[in-house]
Amino acid sequence: MKYKFLAAMLSVSTAAVAIQVPAAKAQTQPAQQSYNIAAQDLGAALQRYSQISGREVIASSTIVQGKRSARVQGRLTPDAALSRLLSGTGLVAELVDGALIVREGNDTAEEAGSTEAGSDAIVVTGSRIRGAGPTGSPVVSINREAIEKSGYGTVQQLLQSLPQAFGGGSNESTTGTTTRNGTGNDATLGSSINLRGLGTSSTLVLIDGARPALGGVGGLFADISLIPVSAIERVEVLTDGASAIYGADAVAGVVNIRLRNRFEGAETTLRAGTADGDMTEVQFSQLLGKRWSGGHVVLAYQYSERGALAGSERAFAREDLRPFGGPDYRSTTAVPGTIRAANGQIFGIPTGQNGTALTAAQLLPGVQNRRDARAESDVLPRQRVHSLYAGGEIALTEGLTLRANILAAERRFRRIAKGDFLRVSRVPVTNPFYVDPIGTRQPVQVTYSFVNDLGPDTRTGRVRAVTLSGGLEQRLGPWRVELSGAFGRQKGKANYYNLVNSARLAAALADTNRATALNVFGDGTANNPATLDRIRGSYGTIDDFSTWSAALRADGPLFRLPGGDMRLAVGAEYRREAYDYFVKNDISTATPNNAPYPGFPGPRHVKSVYAELNLPIVGEENSIPGIHRLELSAAGRIEEYNQFGRTENPKFSARWEPVPGIALRGSFGTSFRAPLFDELIGPALSLYSVERVPDPASPTGTSPVLALFGYAPNIQPEKATTWTAGFDIAPPSIPGLRASLTYYDVDYRDRIGTVTEDYLRFLSNRDVFGGVIVDNPTLSLVQFYFAQPTLSNPLGLAPTDIKIILDGQTRNLSAERQRGIDFDLGYATSLAGGTLDLGVGGTHIFSIMRQLTPGAASTDFVGLYASPVKWRLRGRAGWSKGGFSANAFVNYTDSYLNQIPVPAERIASWTTVDLTLSQRIGGDESDEGGRGLQLGLSIQNLFDKDPPYAAVRSQTSGQGYDPEKASPIGRMISVQATIRW
């Protein structure tokens, strides 16, 4: 008997219900069929499901006893129908040897912050035991229906709408506005996900359970902008540490993007949108899928294009914030420019003249000319993305299955940048256009923008990525053994044009020929084109990340416990990662310098073994008063790195249901993050600079210091201890009501970081920055830094003048402890012949206690600039009937304190409303997912609410809003048509 052994396992202490179907029908496997199964006894409902679907179902009679199924009606795929049938029963279905095995599971785990209306029958993220969800950890699950209801057209929009997500880090909207939270390392303008604000590299992103190649300098993040949203079946977000399950980087959580591998038929989607005419988007996608008795295959292609959003279209995208009552952050590099004379006095160059006949009498003493470079640049770049996915599986023999898939993508971007490559023009007296403001006949410095001469600073680039994976799976009775491998590569190119080459600039300024010398005393209209071509420079980077991996895994039952089968997963994995960074520098030397960036370490080799055990102590078969169900799990992982040694991480979880419909759960474990490739460079990349910084203890108000920037040696992994406790409620007496709450505590140690952005505040805030201040350093130590080739000493001080060293190097710097709650409350009921779905999900952070260095005071960073806010909420209300659906979402971001200005400023909260409408045309009204046309209207930020005013400043610029906590897009109206055929 094919299922004799499996049925025997299920029938210990009870009988097994085997629902048989004719063999010929079992092989049909249609993509969609009409289901009309009323809510009834679950055993009878499963039997009816089997008759319609042609799939064999095996279930224990006591597992289904006393349970009622949900109603299933409409044209659905077999998987979707079974998912709805089991919704709310606490059971899951696992495909074993061609049969569906129904067993106890964890189908309510996804409720923390969930945006989906129903629940999947199978939740897999957070456990290596297939078919089982994480025992005590919360999972946010967003299924295909919820993705479509959200109205979002990109993966980054979808994930960043999660209350647990923080907008800081490497994203196209933050790059170029700040260097905090790792933002400055995103040359190719990709997008990342940053759970809880613990860092983009502390959130592990998987695609169908496999690690993709990474982007950003050093392999900083997974670029989610390359994933086609049309090819996604669901997104599972584990909001808990999981290094014991998945290894490095799973500190804040895991995002597992599941693709539509079971899709059958054809689906064409067209989408177009506009941000009130200021920015446009278009999208086209095509899916094709085929299933047969021995396997399936799916092919998906998506093209997306979004125009640039110009800063001139948004009043808050300015450096001049005086209209808002704020400061003037405009750049001093302007056109016309400003002359600084030999005695330090400044003179503004007047407008309305080209510099060919300028005299000292025309200059404006004490005037600093300025230019709003932010208003002249793009807030968001133009992006074009091509994505292609192909995947499938085939049964080679009975029990042996081959799986393979490939995801390839190309993204191109173009952006008019603000211009961070600034150059000061030192004009010698031999320059034919030289003007002497004070009559000393000495060289002068001119802060001058070449935007009118060379054109705007323009940045373009391209990212290409490919991920391939495949494996062989052998079923050995109830056990499964899998041998798999994967390869990923992401290569990004970024080019910066219309820059100024400093070496050739100096030569052009020293030219004595009036016809070819460079003139920086006018409005940028009188220079010789040949001269401009000569000083024109560029800068480019190429980052190349590749990963190879192989794994041998096995999972299955060990023996029977009173509450069910004890199940075990074991595995061994190997991963090789390599990173190269190439620089094309034509801004510093007379001839271009193209060379690999120095100091990056060689390939990383990671060897790991893991084991995970699931123990159902009490189940429905042996429940007692006060313990309806009790399930425990334990996992452990050992990883060895060739670059820094071995790490060991355990995890323990528990789930207890005292009565049906109420579950208490908890988890405890440790996690770690491996250093990025650039974080292992060490002192090979460093800058030591003599500066004057504010010092309240100095009689003059400032003190000379030696500031250290770059990378410290011997950086080690970050480590974290995480525990959670929470509950899930789905009372049988109130159908449609679901609630969950999770308390979390993350103790994060040895954080790798830098406080470079705040070095001017070190001496003014010694209680916070004391650990990076070295008072009265030894003379030998100061002399050591003075002897280094990377020392910059514009003040011309001697080593004996230095009494303070400020250490702004990247290193294992801080400890951070974050505590908070995630919650979700939802209720679905019938209304006016349709279904009403109401809910709210959110997160509240109690504290983010951060200690920059050992011995320094701990400071609470929650609700501050560059940190997450205390409250973030997303409410939902939807009504659907037949082929019509209307959904509204309310997004709330709490107010917070901008601590950078003096005095600190309170930033207002921000609330926006999204609206989506859809109507199905053609086919049966209940034919969900079947053939027909579906039209949709999406309005993001319905009332066009501007971001709250925030005077935020980087090292080189400023603006009037905070891109980490608000979107500059405004009201975005999109229409979409999906044809299923």
Description:
The protein has 981 residues and is mainly beta. Helices cover 9% and strands 46% of the residues. The chain contains 13 helices and 50 strands. The strands form nine sheets. The chain has a 22-stranded antiparallel β-barrel. Helix 3 runs antiparallel to helix 5. The radius of gyration is 31 Å and the shape is globular. The two termini are 40 Å apart. Residues 1-31 and 105-123 have low confidence and may be disordered.
Helix and strand layout, with pairings?
Layout: H1 4-10, E1 16-19, H2 23-26, E2 33-37, H3 42-53, E3 57-60, H4 61-64, E4 72-76, H5 78-86, E5 91-96, E6 99-104, E7 139-143, H6 144-150, H7 155-160, E8 203-207, E9 232-238, H8 243-246, E10 253-259, E11 265-274, E12 280-292, E13 295-306, E14 309-310, E15 338-340, E16 346-348, E17 364-365, E18 378-380, E19 382-397, E20 400-416, E21 424-427, E22 444-447, H9 451-454, E23 458-476, E24 479-500, H10 502-510, H11 529-535, E25 536-561, E26 564-586, E27 593-596, E28 604-618, E29 629-641, E30 645-659, E31 662-673, E32 686-694, E33 702-710, E34 718-729, E35 737-753, H12 766-769, E36 773-775, H13 779-786, E37 791-792, E38 804-807, E39 811-831, E40 834-851, E41 859-860, E42 871-881, E43 884-893, E44 896-898, E45 905-907, E46 910-921, E47 932-940, E48 952-953, E49 958-959, E50 972-980
Parallel strand pairs: 3-6, 8-10, 32-37, 33-38
Antiparallel strand pairs: 1-3, 2-4, 5-6, 7-9, 9-10, 11-12, 11-50, 12-13, 13-19, 14-18, 15-16, 15-22, 16-17, 19-20, 20-23, 21-22, 23-24, 24-25, 25-26, 26-27, 26-28, 28-29, 29-30, 30-31, 31-34, 32-33, 34-35, 35-39, 36-38, 39-40, 40-41, 40-42, 42-43, 43-46, 44-45, 46-47, 47-50, 48-49
Helix pairs in contact: 3-5
